[in-house]
């Protein structure tokens, strides 16, 4: 199947799931899809769709999954999506979307587990309303134009597994709550302007205290472009189950730790 999304789909008012991903669709997303008020899953990802995200999608108040990633969508995220309070997964990455993330009142999505907005042109700060999404497991805002510092909005992220804020223009110190994400498996803060010292150990990441749990961490733990200052002492001792360490594009100083030979899998 290819071509444009048929407007006639709007007559299927009992539809609960519409999956048209990866079939080379072109054209715009029909505003008439807002008539599918029983819809819970809408996947239009990995196509060649263009234009804006219709405000009418905010009428889909039962929607749990909205996947529009890997298209050529432009414009901003419509305010009307704040009405979709049952959202569990919102994936808009790899488009040409812009504007500030504050457009979304993220406090309206208490069940949100995945928010993926990477590879767009969003600007402004990381919204503090993210802190109300306490069920988040995946947060990827990388490769945008976000600025400012990170506040304490993440102190209740007890389920976070993937956190990527890479390749933005964030600055300041990395807040302590990041080191207390017990279930964290992937952390990428590369390509920003963070300052400060590396932690002397990752003991506060309690899910990584022994070799078994550490091995669940991403095989590439990136500290790229963090502009950290300070010693690397003890860091390598703790990550002895990792297969790669990348400390490139930094301003680290001091000597390499004498325990560099201790990791058995690098």
UniProtKB/TrEMBL annotation:
Record carries keyword Endoplasmic reticulum: no
InterPro entries linked: Leu-rich_rpt (IPR001611), LRR_dom_sf (IPR032675), Plant_receptor-like_S/T_kinase (IPR051809)
Record localization: Membrane
Top-rank taxon, per record: Eukaryota
Annotated Gene Ontology cellular component terms: membrane
Keywords: Disulfide bond, Glycoprotein, Leucine-rich repeat, Membrane, Phosphoprotein, Repeat, Signal, Transmembrane, Transmembrane helix
Pfam families: LRR_1 (PF00560), LRR_8 (PF13855)
Topology versus the membrane: Single-pass type I membrane protein
SUPFAM superfamilies assigned: L domain-like (SSF52058)
A GO biological-process term: regulation of root meristem growth
Protein name: Uncharacterized protein
Protein species of origin: Riccia fluitans
């Amino acid at each position: 199947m290819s071509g444009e999304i048929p407007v006639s789909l709007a007559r299927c008012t009992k539809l609960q799931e519409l999956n048209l991903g990866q079939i080379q669709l072109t054209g715009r997303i029909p505003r008439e899809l807002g008539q599918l008020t029983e819809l819970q899953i809408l996947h239009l990802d990995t196509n060649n769709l263009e234009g804006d995200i219709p405000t009418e999608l905010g009428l889909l108040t039962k929607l749990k999954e909205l996947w529009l990633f890997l298209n050529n969508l432009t414009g901003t995220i419509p305010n009307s999506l704040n009405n979709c309070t049952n959202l569990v997964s919102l994936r808009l990455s790899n488009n040409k979307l812009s504007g500030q993330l504050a457009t979304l009142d993220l406090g309206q999505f208490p069940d949100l587990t995945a928010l993926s907005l990477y590879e767009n042109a969003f600007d402004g700060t990381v919204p503090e309303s993210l802190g109300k999404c306490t069920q988040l497991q995946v947060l990827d805002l990388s490769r945008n134009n976000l600025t400012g510092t990170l506040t304490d909005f993440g102190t209740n992220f007890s389920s976070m597994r993937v956190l990527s804020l890479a390749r933005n223009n964030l600055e300041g110190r990395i807040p302590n709550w990041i080191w207390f994400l017990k279930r964290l498996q992937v952390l990428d803060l590369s390509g920003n302007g963070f300052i400060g010292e590396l932690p002397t150990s990752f003991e506060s990441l309690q899910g990584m205290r022994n070799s078994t749990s550490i091995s669940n961490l991403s095989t590439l733990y990136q500290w790229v472009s963090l502009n950290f200052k300070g010693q690397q002492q003890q860091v390598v001792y703790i990550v002895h189950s990792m297969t790669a360490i990348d400390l490139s594009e930094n301003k680290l100083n001091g000597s390499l730790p004498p325990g560099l030979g201790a990791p058995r899998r690098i």
